[in-house]
Amino acid sequence: MTRAAAVSTLVFCVAAFMAGGAAAQGTAYVSSEKDDALTLIDTKTLAVKGTVPTCKRGRHIQRLPDGKLMVACTDSNAADVIDPATGKSVRRVPLGNEPEAFDISPDGKTIYVSNEDEAEASFVDAATGKILNSVKVGKEPEGVKVSADGKTLYVTSEVASLVHVIDTAAGKVVKNIKVGKRPRRMAITPDGKELWVTNELDSSVTVVSTANHEVVATLPFEVKGVRKEDITPVGITMSRDGKRAFVALGRANRVAFVDVAARKVTDLVLVGKRAWNVALDQAGARLWVVNGLSDDVTVVEVDGARAIKSIPVGRVPYGVVVVE
After folding, report:
1. DSSP letters along 18-35, please?
2. SS3 of residue 200 by DSSP
3. Paired sense of beta strands 141-146 and 286-291, if any
4. Quick one: residue 77, left, alpha or beta (phi over 0 = left, psi -120 to 50 = alpha)?
5. pTM of the full predicted structure?
6. Does residue 6 fall inside a structural domain?
7. Cα separation values, 311 from 39, 203, 318, Å
8. Is residue 141 part of a domain?
9. pLDDT digit string, tens, across residues 16-66
């Protein structure tokens, strides 16, 4: 090969690599319960740029430690693993019956999943899909959250109004924490000291100390002109500095900005119908809110707490992940 040809080949390969990498960058991925596909949104233009077919009734979606995406498909009893660089499914992982939410161990080797119909939390080998352990929990388990050190797993039970504390090494429940009615999702503060739990039918968040697993505070939500029963918090996320929490208030069609230290709502932003789940971009500048009944996603500027655009997506959108 001549030097010119070698240089040309190198340039081509580098360009191809950069193009492939660029496909994964600057994209929000939104799951849909009705369309069996992910909607892809360009984070700069805020325009839909395509869809990726996936398995049936896609719900919780999360980025894996290796950069790939995983979406739980409740009606397929499996998770679909998607490579953002190619926009294609690379494998399916069995997750047991009726999987809805999950979390990944810090080393990426174990998937912790809630199996609603079985009232179980399953430990699944991420490589093989083999169920390593199943732990009985309360009826209709939903939220799943693992601690940063991987030693503790938290699972909510909607019917029992409990958060189950599971020792991942022993594979058993070590404590049950009474929280509000119908607990749904959770977030752990970046310092690891508190677990925040949304209570859908109590219009509140329960704050739990991770040191002793005792409730230390309850934060109620109020929205002027909205009945309490229509304030139904579900999705929650934390800013990277741990100063703010963002809570989707469901049928109240708002997202709440919460001062974590003061445990006080500082702003309420009007978004779409049934604000369901939320995600921040890497910079923490924009909050992405999934609206399950208006079939769209609202993008909110964190500074100024204002909605800047609502983007139509698939039918009954559920979760969102932002890749930048």
Report:
1. HHHHHHHSSEEEEEETTT
2. coil
3. unpaired
4. left
5. 0.91
6. no
7. 10, 27, 14
8. yes
9. 333 334 445 799 999 999 999 999 999 999 999 999 999 999 999 999 989
